[in-house]
Each structure stands twice: as C-alpha cells, then as structure tokens.
Amino acid sequence: MFLSVFDMFKVGVGPSSSHTMGPMVAAARFLDLLRASPFDAHGLRASLHGSLAFTGVGHATDRATILGLAGFLPDSYDHEKAEAALEKIRTTGHVHPEGLPPLAFEPREDLKFDFGPNLPGHANGMILMATDAQGDVILQETYYSIGGGFVLTEGELEGGAATDEGAPIPYPFKSAAEMLEMAEHSGKSIAEMKRSNEIARGCTESLNKGCARIWQVMNDCIERGLTTDGTLPGGLNVRRRAKGIHDALQAERGMNLVAPHTINDWMSAYAMAVNEENAAGGQVVTAPTNGAAGVMPAVIRYWLDHVPSASASRVEEFLLTAAAIGGLVKFNASISGAEAGCQAEVGSASAMAAAGLCAVMGGTPEQVENAAEIALEHHLGMTCDPVKGLVQVPCIERNGLGAIKAVSAASLALRGDGHHFVPLDAVIETMRQTGADMHEKYKETSLGGLAVNVPNC
Fold it and tell me: What pLDDT score does 161 carry?
C-alpha cells in the first residue's frame, strides 16, 4: 500500500492524533455520509469505546467529537472559533454543520462513554448515529481511529481498506528488504525512490510546497513551545519546562565549562516544546502521531542548528526518508499506542528520525535502514501509560529521549558499513508481536503502569 508523506505527516491539533484528530475526522466523514443520504435527520448521537472511552476526557476525545459533528476539521482548526462553537452548542443543544439543518445534540445526553469491551475491530472505536424526529436511529456507522489520524469504517477495516487504487508507483516496496533491493537495483536513495512514488501520485510542485509547510508548522510549534511558560491544562498541574531549559541553555552558550552532553538538553528542549504545545491543544504535525510529535522536529532542528554541514534545502529529503520508514512500520505493524503501546508511537518516531538524519548526513540506504533498526529495537516493549489519560506524563519527556536515541542510532549506523545482525523487518515484526501480547492495561487505557502508580493530582 502506498502511504504518502502527507499521510505520515498531517497538520492537526493536540493532544492526540488517534483520540482527538481521528474522532474529528470520523465525525466529518459521518456528516458527508448524512449529506448524501435520503434521510431527514433531526439529531445526532455518538458513543466512544475502548481506549477512546477510557482516556477520552484526558485526550479531549469528547471535545473533538462534538467539534467534528459541528463541522470542524484538524487541518483548518481555529481555537477561538472552536471555543465559541462549543459554548453555542452547550447553550442551544444543537450543532449546525455546513450543508445540513440544525441537528439536536446535547453533549451530556448524546455523547456516551462505553467502558465495556472494545469494539471488535480496534481498541479505538466509536459509533455515530443520526436520528429522526422521534429519536429513532436512521443512519449509523462504526469508525475506528487506527493511529496517526487514520480513520476506517467497520466495513473498510473488515474488507481490507488498505487496497491501493491509485496510479502505479515505480517503487512499491512493502518491506525494508524490498526497499534495499530496489535501492541497489535503481542506484537511488530511499528519499529519491519515495520522491518518485509521490510524484507518480501528485506533482513536484505540490510535493515541494507540502513538505515546506510540514517543516514550517513543525518549526513554528517548536518556537511557540520555547517561548511559552505556565501550567498545562488537565488537572495534573504539570509546568511547562521547555522555555526554562532553553533560556538556561542560551545563557550558557559560549561558556567553556559547558559539558558535551549538554547537546542532549537542546534536543530534549526542542522535543518537549512540541509536546507541551500538543498537550495544550495547539497545532502540531503528526509524526507519525501527536503523542510522538516532538521527536522528528527535535532531530531536524538539532541537525539544522548544531551540525555544521546541515542545510535547510535538504529537509525534504529528511522527511521523505522518514516517511518511507514510517510507512513500513504502519503497513507491517502499527503506529497506534492503543494497539501496540508507546513502542508504536515514540519508537516509530525515533526510527523515522534516525533514518532521516542518517540520510541527510550521507548515509547509504543500508546505513539508513540500520539507523531505523537500532532506534526501534531499543524502544521494544515500551508501554503507553499516560497519567490521568493526559498526553503529558510520561509522554513529554519521552519524546526528548526518543530524539536522543534517534541521533545516537544514526551516529552508530554511520560508524558502520550498513551490515548488521538484526534486520529492520525483524524488529518491526517483533514490535507487532509484542504489541499483540501486551496486556490491554498498558495500551493507552491508563489502567496500568505509571497511570496507576503516580498520584493524579
């Protein structure tokens, strides 16, 4: 299956790609279904299941569902307009999406959290319904938010919605082994093959502009996080730390007593800046998810600001390489914390960032694959256990460590010749198996791990 760089990197809103962006996208799809239907709808209902229920409030899933049914989309999200819309919905008990009449929707009555068994398709399930004047359901659809903002209906999931129906692509690799074989035969880098695939489905101009926008949004997010302090919402009273760390690092610059390992603090500050913005509901880029959104920008910013040979003209190469690796992980395993734990989120992000950095620092395709393998291998088994269901503890710091691991992995790979013992495909499969074996309480339900061993206040 072809996954575009713009599938892996989506501009959206925090705090969660699967719990915030996904439900908003699902609601938009349901509105399109309703607009095309012959039914005369008078009201809407929604029920959240599995992880969407257990950590829904902490991840703002309820808010995202309401706004989605009111017509909001992640890519064009406006915070002030959203706040005004929510207040109007609470006051009137109606939503008024474009192209439809006002529809009755009282959040306290019509949005249900179902804490029973998961729906059969995925841990992140939701059911959306339209009702007639008597309150009877006239249209219903089940959606699954499968990670990274990707959404499938129940029918799409059962029917294998991954079927690729677009124009043929020149390098259709579905495994790292195929990717390396095609690179060897073509003489192209991973980024060059990925670029050819993208252009086969679009055009050079849209690819260039799209990648430039992705990095701009990422970097803007870093800058906001580095200049904003205060306390994050949600009740844990977690203080923003990125600004303080960054201010201290800037003050220390040029001092002869600064230890070499301080570079890790720079990477952590960049990553934490993004994830503090994400936790506050700001604009971020899924990379490949919101919970792991800080790793990629932090490594790119580290490369641009701290590596002498870096050039902003090669950011697109970084993104394309990373997207190729992310696509392999998603296709063969998962990028969903609710499905496979944080190894699927920060682990995948670290592998993608390691590959991208290795590529722009002159790595061969074999070294790039090795860099991704090292980074992912050393996230295997990582659980997803957000305290109080908020994407704050341990998520914010975890992105900093994911960035540090990515840089270390790329450096180790560049010290070798690309030959190594464990192939990336084996690590991806191991991650899939580990996720399947992992107890549900460690997969974004906040029922185990740090979520139950750290006070929530």
Answer: 57
Q: Where does the chain hold its CATH 3.30.1330.90 domain(s)?
A: 17-158
- By three-state DSSP, how is residue 410 classified? helix
With vertex at residue 4, the alpha carbon angle to CA 13 and CA 217, rounded to the nearest 5 degrees, is 35
Segment holding 112, helix H or strand E: strand 111-114
Name the strand (E) or helix (H) holding 13. strand 11-13
Beta strands 111-114; 11-13: pairing state: unpaired
CB 422 within 8 A of CB 412: no
Q: Environment class of residue 101 by beta-carbon count within 10 Å: exposed (0-12), middle (13-18) or buried (19+)?
A: exposed
What's the sign of the alpha-carbon dihedral 329, 335, 338, 341? positive
Q: Quote the radius of gyration of the chain (alpha carbons, Å).
A: 22
- 256 CB neighbour count, 10 Å cutoff: 4
Q: Which residue has the tokens 């722009």?
A: 360
Q: Which two tokens stand for residue 22?
A: 């996904």
| Architecture label for domain 176-453 | Orthogonal Bundle (1.10)
- CATH topology classification for 17-158: 60s Ribosomal Protein L30; Chain: A; (3.30.1330)
pLDDT of residue 241 exceeding 80, the answer is: yes
pLDDT (tens digit, 9 = 90+) per residue, 143-163?
Answer: 999 999 999 999 999 887 555
